[in-house]
Amino acid sequence: MRNLDTILAASKPGDIIQLERGLYTTLGCSTNPTPDGQPLKPGVKLIGQGDQTVILSIRPMDETQSDSSVILGSGDNTIENLVVDCGVTLVPKRKRNGVYCRTTGNRIKNVTVLRPHGVWAPEYRESFGLCVQLDDPTSSIADCSVLEPIGNYQTMIQGHTVTGCRVIGDYRTRDELGFRMGYNIGKSKDSLLSNCFAAYVTSAVYSDMALDGATIIDCDFHAVKHGLYLNAMQPTDPTQALRTFKRVKFQGNSIYLDNTRAGAAGVIMEHIHQSGAATTQNCICDVLITENNFEVIPGTLAGDIYAVNVSSQTPLSDVSETLGISKVRFVQNQVDPRMKFRNARGCADISGTVTQSIKFDA
Questions:
Q1: What's the whole-model pTM score?
Q2: Which tens digits make up the pLDDT trace of 54-65?
């Protein structure tokens, strides 16, 4: 057993740190603007020997001083071929991320994160298994896994370009209060999620931040409540950033919805006002849903389950490319006959066909 913090402290920017097989321990880093602990210095490459190299957080479980990350990147970092164990066995009040990289130029490949922890109400401390900056096309996450999350508020993987990854939640806690996201690709331009797997999470893919061009392609989502969830809710606070989604392609994915979750949907799009008032900003525009397979896990349905579920508070007469939901196309998809289509207020501009014409329930 070796001390990773000692190794990181002795490194210089741009170093390549080649870890051997075995166990490395670390206290990790707080998520404060000036973190405690030993972050990766800019440009450092941390490379292990696959699943035989394990980095274990030994930060005390009763700590109250800050949230933390097991590995904290500082920019232009590479983390590759290793396992990161967040060390969470109890249920602390603070969150713990696996690998969290700040700024740009970060690359995470063939990394497995175990036991990240996030906290739902009342603290609302969202944890991240693996995270690079959302709006940075020079950062990527590839061939990684996030497994055995603890707690009830986490994004398993977040990044601009994510390929060949898998995330698996806990089926025993899937109905508990909270929100567990498989992948977040929001706040970006021309982002990509490809050949990824998600199971036992609330939403396989979720975004509540601006998207200008996003492709979700050739993914497999099993026992989820939502395949793709675009949340364009207008917040009560007018200073919050706009939630605009444009040029989104959802193609060639297999979605197996959890039959025990009433209201489950292959694709859900919401444009409502947090206060219930009429919407005056935000939009979802130009969404192509094509060549997907929408199914429900066999068994009794807990309630209505949808291929597409849409809710907008913008009157159809006011819908435009900058307000409301428009230009949604649903074509050449295979749909389980038990699924429905729903346009909750009849306010969205939607078109498409399956084996039969789509009939949206008002």
A1: 0.93
A2: 999 998 876 566
